[in-house]
């Protein structure tokens, strides 16, 4: 076996300390946040568009601050930071759309369709923009603001309405963010479901 060349030994020795510094992605948080619906559809419940009204719920548009899995904090009226070690399991717009679908189904009995399922008969169409979905540091609140637009079945008119919920939080951290935002999102989803179900 040939002895290692002195230059190669020096290169390997210099590279060893760097091995612990190299990272191919951000360090993941200890756990990921998600929303828990308070109005879940019973397992095994059958629905049919032949006997119930339908509604298509679109994933809401979001500002750039929410186009991420991080949890925004309104630090001042003009600055946004993110909660340390807090991340959603997926982007908030998709989590909120799923929560809306569960809540509308449970509270109104309507059949909620996906965009693909709605091609033949979309029924009512609910869309909008998720304007805020984060923490307000000054007020110590979880804040959800959703600007909804609704086109009811067999109507060409668009109705618009803003829904908002604010829930006090004990701290600006991952645990408080997950619990507070889940409560606020459920409040907004309940208000939206009552509006859609009128």
UniProtKB/TrEMBL annotation:
| Species annotation | Sphingomonas jinjuensis
Q: Where is the signal peptide?
A: 1-19
Which InterPro entries does its entry note? Answer: ABC_trans_aux
The alphabetized UniProt keywords are: Signal
| Name used for this protein in its record | Cholesterol transport system auxiliary component
In the record, what lineage is assigned to the organism producing the protein? Bacteria, Pseudomonadati, Pseudomonadota, Alphaproteobacteria, Sphingomonadales
What region holds the ABC-type transport auxiliary lipoprotein component domain? 35-193
